[in-house]
Amino acid sequence: MNATYPIDAELLLAGRDDISDPALRVWLRISSCVALIDEELRRRLREGFGTTRPRFDFLAHLASAPDGLTLGELSQRMMVSNGNMTGLAKRLLQEGLIERRPEVTDRRITRVVLTEDGAEAQAAMAQTYEDCVSDLLTDLDHADKEVLLTVMSLLKSSVKSRLTR
Description:
This protein is mainly α. 64% of the residues lie in helices and 6% in strands. The chain has a two-stranded antiparallel sheet. β1 (98-102) and β2 (110-114) form a beta hairpin.
């Protein structure tokens, strides 16, 4: 791979002997891996579908919610502002990938749902996403992946237990 990826947290500390905290080194390794994988996912979505990661995420959340979601719910799930959701929804509506439907029990509430074209586009993008991740992790055998899943579960539990929200 000849591409140069500008985001690599570990490279920021290359050659520094004063970083001995294993927790910091673990975090930098995780951050670097996430950045590298995310950059490749974005590239494949852009080249394969002319789309962005936020558009993919928007459609993926709708694919997992057959009754649709409000823009507020999407905003929470995607951790972005309502303003960002409105603009994105407007473009996806214009492209015929989503449609608005009034809530059955309260017509003041509007849900967005995938259209048939939106569901087809999302399924194709999801397959590319899955193929990309599988490709990037191909050098790890099944046992390695199981070990990573176990360790990452421990990490997630540790982090969640110390959150101060």
